[in-house]
């Protein structure tokens, strides 16, 4: 199965989840996603997702000066983003549970 297609459908949720407890800048968010096991996530996909979530009103941004290079734009969840995370997580859990049941009923999941 091509995990990149699955990733496209859940990248918004993954980014919101990564930002749940701690704000982050683009590369930091990408690193956290990859360290969580989403190795196939691309740079452009994450930056595009951050822009889209910001435009949708789910994220706030602020700039932090850096002594070692350009300033970093940090992203954080706001109330709208937390609500979206909660709604999307509920949808995900329902979907994943349904898939687990389908697979288990057919003896394909141990």
Automatic annotation (TrEMBL):
Residues 15-86 form the Transcription regulator PadR N-terminal domain. InterPro entries: Metal_resp_DNA-bind_regulator, Tscrpt_reg_PadR_N, WH-like_DNA-bd_sf, WH_DNA-bd_sf. This is PadR family transcriptional regulator.
């Amino acid at each position: 199965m091509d995990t990149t297609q699955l990733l496209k459908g859940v990248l918004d949720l993954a980014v919101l989840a990564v930002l749940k407890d701690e704000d982050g800048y683009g590369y930091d968010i990408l690193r956290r996603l990859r360290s969580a096991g989403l190795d196939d996530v691309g740079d452009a996909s994450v930056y595009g997702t951050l822009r889209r979530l910001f435009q949708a009103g789910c994220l706030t941004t602020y700039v932090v000066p850096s002594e070692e290079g350009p300033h970093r734009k940090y992203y954080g969840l706001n109330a709208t983003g937390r609500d979206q995370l909660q709604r999307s997580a509920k949808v995900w859990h329902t979907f994943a549970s349904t898939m687990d049941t389908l697979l288990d009923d057919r003896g394909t999941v141990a």
